[in-house]
């Protein structure tokens, strides 16, 4: 059964799809309770009906949207060398985000949501 996220990924290049499917798997393993759906036309994970994070591909880069500026600040040292904005981390398939960093970001955001409940 294909999901909306699967449809999104099917429209990408093989390299983009492989990179984003890897992120998808890391997040699913880190926060198995998270629900994946499409939000603002890209795959997003929600935990306890709250935004966890999302990912996307563009012609020039891949993105991990954290939507919380404090996450970028919290992981600033580990994000050195990556292009970041207030709520986004941009990277490419040749220099992907480290697996441990993706897991840590997902778990950190999960903790934030748990503390807000």
Structure description:
There is one protein chain. The model has no long low-confidence stretch (mean pLDDT 94). This protein has a six-stranded antiparallel beta sheet with strand order 1-2-3-4-6-5. The protein has a single domain, classed as Aspartate Aminotransferase, domain 1. Strand 1 and strand 2 form a beta hairpin. The termini are far apart. The protein is 41% helix and 25% strand. Helix 2 packs across helix 4 (99-116). It has four helices and six strands. The protein is globular. With 117 residues, the protein is of the alpha+beta class.
Total beta strand runs: 6
What gap, in angstroms, lies between the N and C termini?
Answer: 33 Å
Q: Rg from C-alpha positions?
A: 13 Å
Order of helices and strands: HHEEEEHEEH
CATH architecture: Alpha-Beta Complex
Name the quaternary structure: single chain
Helical content band: 40-55%
Unreliable stretches, pLDDT < 50, 5 or more residues? Answer: none
Give the class from helix and strand content and strand pairing.
Answer: alpha+beta
- Average pLDDT confidence is 94
Number of helices: 4
Broad CATH class? Alpha Beta
**Biggest beta sheet attributes:** 6 strands, antiparallel
Strand order of the largest sheet: 1-2-3-4-6-5
Query: In percent terms, what proportion of residues is strand?
Result: 15-25%
Task: Give the number of domains.
Answer: 1
